[in-house]
Amino acid sequence: MPVNLLTTSLPWRLSSTNSDGEVMPQRTILDLCLHDSKTVTALHNLLTQERKALEERDAESLESLLGSKNSLINLLNESASKRTQLLAEQGFEHNREGMKRYIATLSPEQSEELSELWSELEEGLESCKELNLVNAKVLQHTRTAVDRLLTIYRGSAAKSVSLYGEDGSATRANEHRSITKA
């Protein structure tokens, strides 16, 4: 049964300060990952809304969604920068292996919780990437259709139509051909 890490109580987070009261990196990294998980969920929902707006060709909604999407992506980028800095301060690279090595240094309870959260975050980001690629394809398809309509509307369709010559190679409709080669 999957654990909803956004609502799971993490008691060890409260005791993650050193004797000087400074926040320890594991708490900050966990907090960043928790925040990122919420941000990724919001981004996933937004990308789903974007897909619907693209399908409905709702330009007003798309404009609003684009601003929100950029804000969420900026939040994720800022968080990634902070995580990179925290991991580097602890001597770890900011990549999948560096995070795994960092998680391995934590207590078993911390390791399990952060490992599950990190996996959830990676899966969420992958899902957002896939949704974004689908949206890009829908947008490109729409753009192509609009370009074709504009070409027809402007009356320049005949100039851009490709035909095939006697040797099977593509030729433009407006290229001069002799009647004998028709």
TrEMBL record:
Keywords: Bacterial flagellum biogenesis, Cell projection, Cilium, Flagellum. Required for the efficient initiation of filament assembly. Belongs to the FlgN family. It comes from the Bacteria. The keyword Translocase does not apply. SUPFAM superfamilies: FlgN-like. InterPro entries: FlgN-like, FlgN-like_sf. GO terms for biological process: bacterial-type flagellum assembly. Pfam families: FlgN. This is Flagellar protein FlgN.
